[in-house]
Design goal:
This protein is α+β, with helices and mostly antiparallel strands and 404 residues long. The chain contains 13 helices and 12 strands.
Length: 404
């Protein structure tokens, strides 16, 4: 090796030691040659000494260069080992999964990644992200892979449903970026198991939807809906039983409502429902709860009211509806309604008992000729204008059922 040649950079220790040994052999060969040359030419001892000194300087300089290269190699090796140790400490942490995907397959996964999906590293080496996605989320995962592969997105963040080896489904959140290694493009991803968070979010959303549905009024009548009634009545009964109070409940049903729709149309039927709800609202106290129970049925809950008082309130409402004309175009629709009354604790202490008692009383009012109030504590007269029916009980029941 000439004086101008640079020492090998980054060579390993064995190569550097071999280079030093080789240089020593070259120096020794040169010194032997000089010695022989001096003897053959009759050169002086001084000349031989000068040649030896020159060669010794070259040896020292070259040795120093090689020792420097050796120390540099040791420094780089030490730095590489420290870097590798840091890398392993990062990828082997137990908090998040880490994966490298090459050509659609996992080239590397850490222990947490394997734990999330329930596979060993060897099993995952033959699989890819698409193989882990639940069937309904495979298109989403394929789209995200395509975006990174095409270069349309350098990084992506998304959540999908994955299927573990044991068949259970988990929610995973992916934070992934594309990296070019030579002519290859690989994906480095951080994977988090967010099943608990997503479950909590779904439960919260379901509760929010339920509360929204409960709190939203019926769009036609602007009264509360049945879901809100179910939740509110339960609470009112618990408070009433604890405090020893009464709760009155009135169930009302518009008479012959089907014939209104058949004769005047559904828009006329909607007007009748709205008018009934408006009258019902007028008879409500601030503490009362007016709800559309379904179709042409309505429920009025009156906390702190006895059965007798509830019956009086129902009779006032019945009379107001009877004298309430509903106009639809040129037509004036006469409306009547039947009511059933129940109360807590006389008729029961649960929502089911109270609704059943009021419904039974309402059926009795319908069967008795409609346009009347029946039920617990009711002493009001029969206002039905239907003619008395002296047919056999079985015949009357059949006629009333078919007319209901």
């Amino acid at each position: 090796m000439s004086e101008r040649e640079e020492p090998p950079h980054g060579a390993d220790v064995a190569s550097l030691l071999a280079e030093i040994a080789r240089q020593n052999k070259v120096i020794q060969a040169l010194m032997n040659r000089v010695e022989r040359s001096g003897i053959a030419t009759g050169g002086s001892d001084y000349d031989a000494f000068q040649a030896a000194v020159t060669l010794e300087r070259q040896v020292r300089r070259r040795t120093a260069e090689l020792e420097h290269a050796l120390r540099e190699n040791e420094r780089m090796t030490r730095a590489l080992r420290e870097s590798e140790a840091r890398f392993r400490s990062v990828v082997n942490q137990p908090l998040v999964g880490i994966s490298i995907v090459d050509n659609g397959r996992f080239a590397f996964t850490n222990a947490k990644h394997d734990e999330i999906f329930g596979y060993s590293a060897e099993e995952l080496a033959g699989l890819g992200p698409l193989d882990l996605a639940a069937e309904e989320d495979k298109p989403k995962v394929a789209e995200q892979l395509s975006r990174r592969l095409s270069g349309n997105a350098k990084t992506v963040d998304y959540t999908f449903r994955a299927r573990r080896k044991d068949g259970a489904e988990v929610d995973v959140e992916i934070h992934s970026s594309a990296m070019d290694l030579g002519e290859k493009r690989v994906f480095v991803s951080v994977v988090l198991d967010v099943s608990d968070r997503m479950r909590a979010e779904r439960e919260t959303q379901a509760l929010y939807d339920l509360l929204r549905e409960q709190s939203n009024p019926d769009p036609l009548t602007r009264l509360f809906n049945r879901r809100y009634l179910d939740a509110s009545l339960e609470r009112e009964l618990i408070v009433a039983i604890r405090c020893g109070h009464s709760v009155g409940l009135v169930m009302g049903d518009i008479d012959h409502f089907k014939s209104v729709n058949d004769r005047f149309g559904h828009l006329a039927g909607d007007e009748v429902l709205s008018a009934f709800a408006a009258q019902m609202t007028k008879f409500c106290r601030a503490s009362d709860l007016a709800c559309r129970y379904g179709g042409e049925e309505f429920v009025l809950v009156m906390p702190g009211m006895t059965a007798a008082k509830a019956g009086e309130r129902a009779e006032e409402l019945r009379a107001a509806i009877e004298t309430m004309p509903v106009r639809h175009g040129d037509a004036v629709i006469a409306v009547t309604a039947s009511f059933g009354v129940a109360s807590c604790p006389e008729c029961g202490k649960t929502k089911g008992d109270l609704i059943a008692a009021a419904d039974k009383a309402l059926y009795a009012a319908k069967r008795g000729g409609r346009n009347q109030v029946r039920g617990a504590g009711v002493t009001t007269p029969n206002h039905s204008t239907a003619p008395q029916d002296d047919r056999a009980p079985i015949q009357r029941a059949f006629v009333n059922l078919t007319a209901a």
